[in-house]
Amino acid sequence: MPNSLPEVWLRGPLPAVPPLLQPVAHALLQAQADVAAALAPFPAAQLWARPAGVASVGFHLQHLAGVLDRMLTYARNQPLSPTQLAYLAAEGHPAPDAGGPDSQVATLQKAFGDKVQQALAQLHLTPENTLTEYRPVGRAGLPSTVIGLLVHAAEHTQRHVGQLLVTARILAG
């Protein structure tokens, strides 16, 4: 049954999120809802399938959690940890101890949902007067800002959710 609620951005402001960061929070919550809806009928056995060579649903789920974690780290003006770098290197491959397809889907979906909640908590703690502060990105220290990283986290999430939705739909038949 389709959701009768309007999209998240049309439901009004989210409590405790600064006004300038509302669109970021709305986009992340919409992404989480879209993933949940797409995975409800998804055949878990197809998690790592790559129809026509496109990225698998499993990759997208891993990447969604990973990219949020990395962008939030940079927005806090911190370097990536060895654990984060190892996670990045492993994206696209099932964890060796991941269990069966059903548990993998549930675990990956939960990891993404947890990162969305961490992002919302970070948005809550981000003063608007810091949004234009410089933040280096990656080993090369490419230039960005707090708001640039937070907006990129949201738009990159939306981009991968769109790809996940199409791939899941194709695989579900």
**General form:** globular
Average of pLDDT: 94
Strand order of the largest sheet: 1-2
Q: Per CATH, what is the topology? A: Four Helix Bundle (Hemerythrin (Met), subunit A)
Query: Can you tell me the number of structural domains?
Result: 1
Describe this structure in words.
With 173 residues, this protein is mostly helical. The protein has a single domain (17-93, 100-172), classed as dinb family like domain (Four Helix Bundle (Hemerythrin (Met), subunit A)). It has five helices and two strands; from the N terminus they run H-H-H-H-E-E-H. It has helices at 22-39, 57-75, 82-90, 101-124, 146-172; strands at residues 134-137, 142-145. The protein has a two-stranded antiparallel sheet. A hairpin with a 4-residue loop joins strand 1 (134-137) and strand 2. Helix 1 runs parallel beside helix 5 (146-172), helix 2 (57-75) packs parallel to helix 4 (101-124) and helix 2 (57-75) packs antiparallel against helix 5 (146-172). The radius of gyration is 16 Å and the shape is globular. The model has no long low-confidence stretch (mean pLDDT 94). This is Metal-dependent hydrolase. Keywords: Hydrolase. Pfam families: DinB_2 (PF12867). InterPro entries: DinB-like, DinB/YfiT-like.
